[in-house]
C-alpha cells in the first residue's frame, strides 16, 4: 500500500519551503512510463506554474487539495481567462482539467498540498506545452503576472487589503 500521512505532507512542505521553486513533489507512481501518474505536490505562495497544456499525447489532469488553498485557472488560446475555481478542503476539493486546456495553479496559503493525477507516461520533452503569452518560469514578471490574474478574477485578501502575492 502507498499511504498519504500528515507526516509525509509535513516533510514535503518543509522541503518545498526550502526549495528555490517553492514547491516539491513526491511521486506515487513507480515509473515515469506508468500510464497513470500520481503525485503529491507541496506548493508555497509565490511559486509560479507557467500556464501550459498537455497534448501530443493528450492528457487530462486532476487536482485534489489535501491542505491549504489554491486557484486553478483555465485560459483560451490567447491567454484570456476562461474559468477558475478556488480549491480548499472545506468547499471545492478538486478539479479535473480536460486535455488540450491551458491552465495554471496559483497557491494562496502556506503549506498547500495537492494530489495530482494525470495520464502518463511522463516524458519531460513533451509533457507540457508552455504558453507563449505568459512569462517563463524564472523570468522577471512572474509575480506581477500572477497578481494580474488574481486581479482579473477578483481574489483579494480583505484582512491585508492586498492581493495575495
Identify low-pLDDT runs.
Answer: none
How many helices?
A: 2
Q: How confident is the prediction overall: mean pLDDT?
A: 91
Percentage beta strand: 25-35%
Query: What is the CA–CA distance across the termini?
Result: 38 Å
Q: Give the helix proportion (percent range).
A: 10-25%
Work out the radius of gyration: 15 Å
Q: Structural class, from helix and strand content?
A: alpha+beta
Summarize the entry for a quick read.
With 165 residues, this protein is of the alpha+beta class. It has two helices and ten strands.
Question: Can you give keywords for this protein?
Answer:
165 residues; alpha+beta; 5-stranded antiparallel sheet; 3-stranded antiparallel sheet; 2 helices; 15% helix; globular
SSE layout:
Layout lengths: L5 H13 L4 E5 L8 E8 L8 E2 L7 E7 L1 E7 L5 E8 L5 E4 L4 E6 L4 E8 L9 E2 L11 H11 L13
Antiparallel strand pairs: 1-2, 2-9, 3-10, 4-7, 4-9, 5-6, 5-8
Structure description:
The protein has two helices and ten strands. With 165 residues, it is of the alpha+beta class. The longest helix is centred in the first third of the chain and has 13 residues. The radius of gyration is 15 Å and the shape is globular. The termini are far apart.
Amino acid at each position: 500500500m502507498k499511504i498519504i500521512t500528515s507526516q509525509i505532507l509535513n516533510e514535503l512542505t518543509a522541503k518545498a519551503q526550502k526549495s528555490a521553486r517553492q514547491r516539491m513533489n513526491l511521486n506515487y507512481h513507480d515509473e515515469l512510463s506508468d500510464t497513470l501518474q500520481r503525485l503529491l505536490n507541496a506548493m508555497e505562495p509565490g511559486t509560479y506554474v507557467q500556464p501550459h497544456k498537455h497534448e501530443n499525447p493528450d492528457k487530462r489532469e486532476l487536482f485534489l487539495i489535501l491542505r491549504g488553498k489554491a486557484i486553478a485557472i483555465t485560459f483560451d488560446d490567447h491567454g484570456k481567462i476562461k474559468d477558475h475555481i478556488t480549491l480548499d478542503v472545506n468547499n471545492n476539493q478538486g478539479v479535473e482539467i480536460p486535455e488540450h486546456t491551458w491552465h495554471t495553479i496559483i497557491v494562496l496559503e502556506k503549506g498547500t498540498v495537492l494530489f495530482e493525477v494525470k495520464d502518463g507516461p511522463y516524458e519531460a520533452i513533451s509533457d507540457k506545452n508552455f504558453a507563449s503569452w505568459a512569462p517563463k518560469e524564472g523570468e522577471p514578471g512572474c509575480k506581477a503576472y500572477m497578481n494580474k490574474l488574481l486581479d482579473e478574477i477578483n481574489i483579494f485578501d480583505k484582512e491585508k487589503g492586498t492581493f495575495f502575492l
